[in-house]
Amino acid sequence: MKELILSQQYALLALNGQESLHPSVAKNAVLRAVAAAQVLETKLGRDTNSFSEFSAALQKAVQIAKTLKKKETSQIEQEVVKALKAEELLKEVPDLLGCDMDYDTSGIELKAYLSDEISYVRIKEGLRAEILEDGPISLEHAVLLWLLRESGCIHDLFSISEQSRVEERMTEAATQDEQYRTLWEAEFHSIFEGVMNRFVKTKSKLFKNPYLEGVNLAFPYLDRRKSVFIDMVIWGTNVADRRAAAVEYLDKKGFTVEEIRIGSETLLKIGNIYYRIFPMTKTAYKVPIQGVNLVPAYW
Q1: Cβ neighbourhood burial of 165 (10 Å; 0-12, 13-18, 19+)
Q2: What is the pTM of this model?
């Protein structure tokens, strides 16, 4: 496999789990960040790269990300997806959301991007190691982290305690190098703030909500994942019974599900994303319906 350029590394991390057939705010943020990455990657790895050149490229990247038109966004998606598919690093699979009771019988086709697990983990863990451990941070990894921050993806890769370490490390780097300071101060996520603020205002007990466990609003947050309700009989069942029933149901739907033990709980890993299971009763046309809710697990 050839070495991936910055925009491809970022896309492999950020497109994973996003809808492929339909637009969304979260995917739009990712594609704007891809456009920014395509500008900045031309300036990385050059020994002669000056601060003024990098600063000019950064300003251009931010401007492009903020002003990208719908047609341009679609073109960028097609290009980056085509390149990653050609390397067998990205594919389209049925979207887990299609298993939700509200979608299962709707006839709407839902698909999502799924990144190659080995490459996804390699890029993710390489970034995490360099950011969380002591030592110098390469400019390429700093830019990758910045792209993830601006598109609301930080919460997918770092736990809430690690996010404090991320802030500490980047602040330290910014005090030592003007390039890092300029990078960390630049932003284009403000174009999504209206969406984020409307969402956050509906979550009055943000940190008590298991759906948002691990979300630190010191970093931009976008709702990149959806919970999935599966109707089943839960009366008289325990946690293990419900988990086994959910795994069996998803297996019949063609999903590869792993049960991952983390601390005192067992999560379900589906397409590089982890989920918790909660019993739930929904009401449809005044009729109570039992089932389980698969809730994305932010670390």
Answers
A1: middle
A2: 0.85
